[in-house]
Amino acid sequence: MTGPVSDSLTAALNRRSLLVPPMAAVLLALVWGQSLPAAVAGLAGLALIGAVLAAVHHAEVVAHRVGEPIGSLLLAVAVTVIEVGLIVTLMADYGSKNATLARDTVFAAIMITCNGIVGLCLLVGSLRTQVAVFNPEGTGAALASIATLATLSLALPSFTTSTPGPQFSPTQLVFASLAALVLYGLFVATQTVRHREYFLPPQIVHAPADPDRPGQDEHAEPPTRRATWTSAALLLVALVAVVGLAKAVSPTIESGLTRAGLPASVMGVVIALLVLLPETIAATRAARRDQVQIGLNLALGSAMASIGLTIPAVAFATLWLSGPLVLGLDPTHLVLLALTVAVGTLTVIPGRATPLQGGVHLSVLAAYVVLAVSP
């Protein structure tokens, strides 16, 4: 692509990102609290997708200003705020009918990030350079944290006996929430303060001053302070629009799933796919630039944020939400979680991956999607 064409395309994308959040917010104000006909629901869905993409664009602008790995962290947190907002608002609307929504969405996020986005990054990166290279120290620490949080929050409730069913007792739920917050805080401190180099692409770590080396940051100059604050404000508007519009179109989505004869748990998969689509795009772009580590940061950081922030938020929301909170996974999903952790560990240890590892992770995701649609 030539320079002028590329510049014009970038300018068009920037203009769209500036216009979409306020337009989505206006549409939200018009449809709030109303029963939407199919045509309006479709328009709201398009605006929702546009707001998600705009939110990620503005998160990337802010991230570019602050640099890596903090940039990946900010993008992951922004996406998780969307996820938490959707879960809490939908649980508030439907109560006990969505008792498993938090579990289904968090587990779907784990499967999509740890298998889908990771597999895609490894596949794209290794096809481009034959072998995808990343830092096993940082990636391994992230995977270990995810495995621990997933086990404490989603696996243990299936085996506890204080409360009937796959649920935590209030004491156990408080413990799981505090453990999630503490581990996530430690992970953030490790990623951004004490061991930042573990989460940078190996090419940048070994040659930080050579802009001609592959794997270096290929972005333009960092945005100005004014552009950064503008993007931060529009990011907030976009996040509010996403949560509100998703709540507005959720009855249409749910009725569509019911008519199609799909299980209720598919709603969690839809939410996770929606909020993680921008992460997938950003991670794939990084892998194409031979920065697989940044793609892995996005994927595993999103999984960490999804568990570390969603579980405490939903636990706090149960103080005023009616109905039970079911967090325990069923046996099929427990097997898939164990397989994900085992495959992820074997992938991370060498710090190098071929297309085979990418294909293995994507096959686990495919199995999850098939079993979600046809349990």
Automatic annotation (TrEMBL):
<feature type="transmembrane region" description="Helical">
    <location>
        <begin position="232"/>
        <end position="250"/>
    </location>
</feature>
<dbReference type="Pfam" id="PF01699">
    <property type="entry name" value="Na_Ca_ex"/>
</dbReference>
<feature type="transmembrane region" description="Helical">
    <location>
        <begin position="70"/>
        <end position="94"/>
    </location>
</feature>
<dbReference type="InterPro" id="IPR006311">
    <property type="entry name" value="TAT_signal"/>
</dbReference>
<keyword id="KW-0472">Membrane</keyword>
<feature type="transmembrane region" description="Helical">
    <location>
        <begin position="106"/>
        <end position="127"/>
    </location>
</feature>
<keyword id="KW-1133">Transmembrane helix</keyword>
<feature type="transmembrane region" description="Helical">
    <location>
        <begin position="332"/>
        <end position="349"/>
    </location>
</feature>
<feature type="domain" description="Sodium/calcium exchanger membrane region">
    <location>
        <begin position="231"/>
        <end position="372"/>
    </location>
</feature>
<feature type="transmembrane region" description="Helical">
    <location>
        <begin position="171"/>
        <end position="189"/>
    </location>
</feature>
<dbReference type="InterPro" id="IPR052946">
    <property type="entry name" value="Alkaline_pH_Ca-Antiporter"/>
</dbReference>
<dbReference type="GO" id="GO:0015385">
    <property type="term" value="F:sodium:proton antiporter activity"/>
</dbReference>
<feature type="transmembrane region" description="Helical">
    <location>
        <begin position="262"/>
        <end position="282"/>
    </location>
</feature>
<dbReference type="GO" id="GO:0005886">
    <property type="term" value="C:plasma membrane"/>
</dbReference>
<feature type="transmembrane region" description="Helical">
    <location>
        <begin position="294"/>
        <end position="320"/>
    </location>
</feature>
<dbReference type="GO" id="GO:0015386">
    <property type="term" value="F:potassium:proton antiporter activity"/>
</dbReference>
<dbReference type="InterPro" id="IPR004837">
    <property type="entry name" value="NaCa_Exmemb"/>
</dbReference>
<protein>
    <submittedName>
        <fullName>Ionic transporter y4hA</fullName>
    </submittedName>
</protein>
<feature type="transmembrane region" description="Helical">
    <location>
        <begin position="139"/>
        <end position="159"/>
    </location>
</feature>
<feature type="transmembrane region" description="Helical">
    <location>
        <begin position="38"/>
        <end position="58"/>
    </location>
</feature>
<keyword id="KW-0812">Transmembrane</keyword>
<feature type="domain" description="Sodium/calcium exchanger membrane region">
    <location>
        <begin position="40"/>
        <end position="192"/>
    </location>
</feature>
